[in-house]
Design goal:
- The structure holds two protein chains of two kinds.
- Chain A is α+β, with helices and mostly antiparallel strands.
- Chain A folds into two domains: about 80 residues, ACT domain (Alpha-Beta Plaits, 2-Layer Sandwich); about 70 residues, Alpha-Beta Plaits (2-Layer Sandwich), CATH 3.30.70.
- In chain A, about 40% of the residues lie in helices and about 35% in strands.
- In chain A, strands 5, 6, 7, 8 and 9 form a five-stranded antiparallel sheet that branches.
- The longest helix of chain A has 13 residues.
- Chain B has three domains: about 170 residues, 3-Layer(aba) Sandwich (Rossmann fold); about 160 residues, Rossmann fold (3-Layer(aba) Sandwich), CATH 3.40.50; about 170 residues, 3-Layer(aba) Sandwich (Rossmann fold).
- In chain B, about 35% of the residues lie in helices and about 15% in strands.
- Chain B has a six-stranded parallel sheet with strand order 3-2-4-5-7-6, with helices on both faces. Chain B has a six-stranded parallel sheet with strand order 11-10-9-12-13-14, with helices on both faces.
- By secondary structure, chain B is of the alpha/beta class.
- Classes of the chains: A alpha+beta, B alpha/beta.
- At the A-B interface, α1, α2, α6 and α7 of A face α1 and β6 of B.
């Protein structure tokens, strides 16, 4: 089976130590994480991991199962790049005098879909978002103008076909009633189970 | 249903006065039906031990001699009783000494709750005295772990810990409680057992279409074969399993952790799978047309070379853990779910059959194995004693009713191959991790978990020296454990491999033993050594009939090999009889 980039999306509780628990699933199999982003999701208290690895589908399927098996993980999806809309963000710091004097800044920004985030006397910071090759491109363009510093974010991705996790979560909770329901039932029979 | 506590968790009434975290911890244990704790005190867990002083009537604490002994004892307790084993240890070295047992419990799906003390929260991360980051150390070897730094978290976290440890596929949980949280007083608003965690679904939903597909495959099969593991027992599905096997008429073989789910003498029980399993089950794995795997995980010791494993068969896999299905072997039909639920559904849809001709194949292989291996092992004509004949004599005297606790190695393979088991929860061994030193402490725990049963720790001369200090636990508690050391004066299994695969280069496997009988006497435990066949049976009888613990050392053949054997890297069909 062919190795390719896979985007793993995990919905989890917001719990200390979970990042380590998930990271271990990769490191014990000696799989390198190409990109990792965690952020709150649209649901209160539920976080979302975006993890990118280069592997075969068989390996990714097993890894996704192992992540979903963790107690604090609600749901895991894995998708190829074709199945997701994804973006990375990059920042570029260049000397303002050089860029102002030598580059056709306006053209440069337009051609690369960039925008200036900060303009100071000593340096200017540009930002672009896009796929790797797009953000890589501006590095090449800016290099002759004395690129001082470059940084790129982890990848974030939205799955094209899914209906999002909201609906899935509602299904889960309908199937297995939440603690409120169980506790209420329990409270009703408290007299019978009371031992101390 | 999964492994259930004998006593249902109970709600505890709110305390009217502020309660310490330590007292709340013990009240949580009582509410969960805990009656026995294995542990070792230390500085960071003193508040809990101090509170325990007032709970001695309700919570029986067993003082072990080493934390590794404590956790193996808790494993033995859990495995013999079906309840959650509980361990206390202090911070730092106390906690790190639990790691081997946690790894063992994780791979063998044993429900444990370990409570470790930790330095004050204000000292975390400062390399304080006896501080280790036990949460990160134990993350890969626990089903779940959590650090409590505030006493108010204790009731809810412990409720979660017990629920996670015992539900679904059971496993070990570690809760680390900082010393300030143990001391801190808070308004204890009562203890409510956990019945639900938002992000945790212990049992997958049974999908009927897969059960129907599995039944259709089974009904069409000409040469079906059942292989089962510990999942049958963890699901409490022994009866459902027996009914399924009997209606289907399909021969069934076991992994070493599953052996006691079906009586050894059952006519459809065809023996053990894997590296030192029986000849027929291994060879015929590569001849069956439908392979029905129940509550087992296709460990490499069972499958041998995967690319040559049961390639001709359609595989049906019943398991509560969806990640086990398709992990090692491609599965034609996955039956997700607790086998207590799925087996009756499957039984209802299958036709009653006999498979007489197919079963005869197993008998033929059995006859070959008896002639080539078993006869010589159980009824040797040589002068020296064999491990097999010791187990055979033990079988006859215990009538298959004893709990047999083993370590890892040759004695383990012999004990699992030749012991007769009549009832469930009788075979306690370190399966997945293969932990030397497991048997003696696990046997102590097994006896506390099943006080009415005879418990025999069968141990090699290597393994017993790894946790021999637990003789002190036997001495102090007076627990009645029979210790049967099979002494071949070698690290026998390693020596066997060196003989077969390393040109007999016996590199550091020649291990000397102390005078075990004298050592036992030092701990006020009776014992004797036997090396003559004429004395064996009487010695075993003396051991079993002795009022209290007893150590019997049997000197067995030094260079005996365990056969059959599937050499590593070979297909199960390439199993060797010699």
């Amino acid at each position: 089976m062919e190795r390719q980039e896979y985007n793993i999306t995990a919905y989890t509780e917001n719990q200390i130590g979970l990042l380590n628990r998930i990271a271990i699933i990769f490191s014990r199999r000696k799989i390198n994480i190409e990109s990792l982003n965690t952020s709150p999701s649209e649901i209160d208290g539920i976080h979302r991991f975006n993890i990118v690895i280069v592997e075969t589908e068989e390996v990714v399927r097993k890894i996704a199962g192992q992540i979903e098996k963790q107690v604090e993980v609600l749901k895991v999806y894995y998708n190829t790049n074709e199945d997701v809309i994804w973006q990375e963000m990059a920042l570029y710091k260049v000397p303002t005098d050089v860029i102002a004097e030598k580059a056709l800044v306006e053209r440069l920004l337009r051609e690369n879909g960039a925008r200036a985030v900060v303009i100071r006397k000593d340096y200017t910071v540009f930002e672009t978002t896009g796929h790797r090759e797009e953000t890589d491109n501006l590095i090449k363009v800016l290099q002759p103008y004395g690129l001082i510093e470059f940084v790129r974010s982890a990848r974030i991705a939205i799955i094209k076909d899914s209906e999002g996790f909201n609906k899935k979560l509602r299904e889960f909770e309908q199937r297995e009633p939440g603690s409120e329901v169980v506790e209420n039932e329990y409270l009703n029979s408290r007299e019978k189970v009371f031992t101390m | 249903m999964q492994t259930q506590p004998a006593t249902a968790p109970a709600t505890i009434a709110p305390e009217t006065t502020p309660t310490s975290g330590a007292v709340a911890t013990l009240q949580a244990l009582i509410a969960e039906g805990v009656d026995t704790i294995f542990g070792y005190p230390g500085g960071a867990i003193i508040p809990i031990y101090d509170a325990l002083y007032d709970f001695k009537e309700q919570l029986h604490h067993v003082l072990v001699r080493h934390e590794q002994g404590g956790i193996h004892a808790a494993q033995g307790y859990a495995r013999s009783s079906g309840r959650v084993g509980v361990v206390f240890a202090t911070s730092g070295p106390g906690a790190t000494n639990l790691v081997t047992g946690l790894a063992d419990a994780q791979i063998d799906s044993t429900p444990l709750v370990c409570i470790t003390g930790q330095v004050f929260a204000s000292l975390l991360g400062t390399d304080a005295f006896q501080e280790t980051d036990i949460i990160n150390i134990t993350t890969p070897v626990t089903k779940w772990n959590y650090q409590i730094t505030d006493a108010t978290e204790i009731p809810e976290v412990l409720a979660k810990a017990f629920y996670i440890a015992r539900s679904g596929r059971p496993g070990p949980v570690l809760i680390d409680i900082t010393k300030n949280a143990q001391i801190q007083r808070f308004d204890f608003t009562g203890y409510t057992p956990c019945q639900h965690i938002r992000s945790y679904r212990p049992k997958p939903i049974v999908r009927n279409e897969y059960v129907e597909q599995a039944a259709a495959l089974i009904n069409q099969a000409k040469k079906p074969f059942i292989i089962w593991g510990q999942g049958v027992m963890l699901g409490g599905a022994e009866q459902e399993f027996k009914t399924f096997v009997e209606k289907s008429g399909i021969p069934a073989a076991w992994t070493i952790l599953g052996v006691d789910a079906l009586p050894t003498d059952h006519p459809l029980n065809v023996g053990m799978l894997g590296m030192h399993g029986n000849y027929g089950p291994n060879v015929l794995t590569n001849e069956c047309d439908v392979l029905i795997a129940i509550g087992m995980r296709f460990d490499d010791r069972v499958t041998g070379r995967l690319d040559k494993y049961a390639k001709q068969a359609q595989i049906i896999h019943l398991d509560i853990d969806p990640t086990e299905i398709g992990k090692n072997v491609p599965t034609a039909v996955p039956v997700w779910g607790d086998c207590k639920e799925t087996l009756p559904l499957l039984t209802a849809l299958i036709e009653e059959k006999q498979h007489t001709a197919w079963r005869q194949h197993f008998d033929e292989f059995r006859d070959q194995e008896v002639a080539a291996v078993i006869q010589n092992e159980l009824f040797p004509t040589s002068e020296e004693l064999t491990m097999g004949e010791v187990i055979q004599q033990l079988n006859e005297l215990t009538n298959g009713d004893a709990i047999i606790v083993t370590d890892v190695g040759q004695h383990q393979m012999v004990a699992c191959r030749y012991t007769k088991f009549n009832q469930s929860r009788s075979n306690i061994t370190s399966g997945g991790l293969g932990t030397m030193g497991f048997s003696l402490p696990a046997a102590i725990g097994a006896k506390f978990g099943a006080p009415d049963r005879t418990v025999v720790a069968v141990i090699g001369d290597g393994g017993v020296q790894m946790t021999i200090q637990e003789l002190g636990t036997i001495m102090q508690t007076g627990v009645n454990v029979k210790i049967l050391i099979l002494n071949n004066q070698f690290l026998g299994m390693v020596r066997q491999w060196q003989e077969l695969f390393n040109d007999r280069r016996y590199s550091f496997v020649d291990i000397a033993s102390p005078d075990y009988v004298q050592v036992a006497k030092g701990y006020y435990i009776e014992g004797q050594r036997v090396s003559e066949r004429a004395n064996l049976r009487n010695a075993l009888r003396t051991m079993l009939e002795h009022d209290g613990s007893y150590l019997l050392e049997v000197m067995v053949t030094k260079e005996n090999n365990i056969f059959p054997m599937v050499p590593q890297g070979c297909s199960v069909a390439e199993i060797r009889l010699k």
